[in-house]
Amino acid sequence: MSDREGGSGTALVRHARAEDLGRVAELVAEHAAYEKAAPPAPDLAARLAGLLFGVEGPGPVPAPDRTRPRLRCLVAELPDGSLAGYATCAPELSTWDGAEYLHMDCLYLTATARGHGLGPLLIAAVREEARVLGLTEIQWQTPVWNEGAIRFYDRLGATSKEKRRYSLPSQPA
To answer: Distance between CA 24 and CA 87 in Å, rounded?
Structure first.
């Protein structure tokens, strides 16, 4: 994917680099707080390094195949070089469709970065990731109370389905 840039002095969306992971981890923590969720693991940057770049960090996350990382992370970079948001995505499977799709796990912009055109740039970059991977659909979810995000996704022409998301530890408590 090529970087998306509107010209000199404008924001752009690009793939995250290893040196971005500290800030990406901060943005993930902001995102979790915004969604009233538990904070991320303290070693999140190291875990992401393994998933994004095949660099093993501490913890149980194995290094992925270097030719095809498990996770993709796109960052919104402001003209001053600071990161104001991110989107992460990874290929997943649909049994019902018998096909792969791109699952957008997160899309987040800081409060001050919202409403300035960065959301559509991030979505366009995620769509390009799907095309590069040969995937014809992107799926994601957002909390039912996040009306701003829902309006944004509706304006994009996305459709939604009602479902609840569950999680269960692999080991009994």
So the answer is: 10
